[in-house]
Specification:
- The protein is mainly alpha-helical.
- The chain has 2 domains: about 160 residues; about 190 residues, Up-down Bundle (Growth Hormone, Chain: A).
- The chain contains 18 helices and no strands.
- It is globular, with a radius of gyration of 21 Å.
Amino acid sequence: MAGYRELLRTAGVARIIAAQLTARFPNGMTSLAILLHVEQMTGSYGAAGLVLAAASVGQATAGPVTSRWMGRWGMRRVLTLTTAVCATALLALALIPMGIAGYMAFGLVAGLSTPPVQSAVRTIYPKMVNARQLTALFSLDASLQEIIWILAPVVITLVATQVGTVPALLLIVTILAAGGAWFILSPEVGRVRIPRSRRAFGKVLGKPVVLLATVTGFLLIGACAAVEAAVVATFGHGGLEAGLVLAVFSVGSLAGGLAFGHIPMGPWAMARRMVVVASGLVAATIVVGGLGATPWWVGACLVLAGVGIAPALAVMFAMTSASVKFSETAEAYGWIGTGQLIGAALGSAIAGFVIDGRGYAGAYAAAAGFAIVGAIVAAACVRGFPDLRGRDVSPIPDTEPVPIIT
């Protein structure tokens, strides 16, 4: 913890972490709020699911695009534009009665205009700390983002059910605008300029490290999404058990990131962390099938699985930073985010079908399957993972020919 205290004393680090967490806080609220609002307005969960799907497709599609735009037009311009458009689309969803097609259209716009805060801040980090501190900063960031997934769903559910879905969406817009303004006006956002990438859009995905980070992120978040569906199906929507068990899952990730973030990352780091996640999910599958689905046993297994999540995400961020040019980092993180969003959608969908066909026990097995495949991919492709032990994980500087007068 002494290393983290030293890190947070570095000028601007605590402020930028707090600002980006606030700006990203709506990410943990928007999907649930849209689902509850559209269901209330239309009386159909099917319609709400279509609107949510449109928003998810928009977000997954836009991630690499808006991230790359920051190198062309600057972070502040892109973040200001996307925040304004996203807030306007959410306001329309909240205040204008419309049909399913209208809700889907505004949901798509809200997804397409999701501000690329995550890509921006992870591009800024290497310019704020020295090489020795950067790996720990990525680990701290991956750990603290769990706060979003612990608190945000609880807050928005309470507001939506006790006050109303319109106030819930208005709360999201307020946090989005205030948090976005705080992050955009942070000195580091104005100080760091991303060079314009000279390579074609999507070329960075051809780098083995970026592709591996995208694939492993897809599998890791797919496992997490399947777990969420499994826990809700196990303990139901009405009680506190499901929320508490999922909170414990996130707390495990937070603890794992803080406890193991300082460990040097070798080529086997990702495989080891995915094995931890898979072990916990396999244990949960066995427990649910044998001992029964009690919150205590399921929670204990998910704590174990959670311990590997934030450390695995930290490996993805650090190895990407160390392997691409600075001008390509934002787009690379955008692709990784898209992979995670697709993983979340596919994990939820597969778990849903399994729950309908075989019950909630099968959803835990599906989650374990995602994690096991992730561990196998990481082990089979170990030569593609860089050895970051004792290495500077800052992005590769951009260089260009300098004309010489002879």
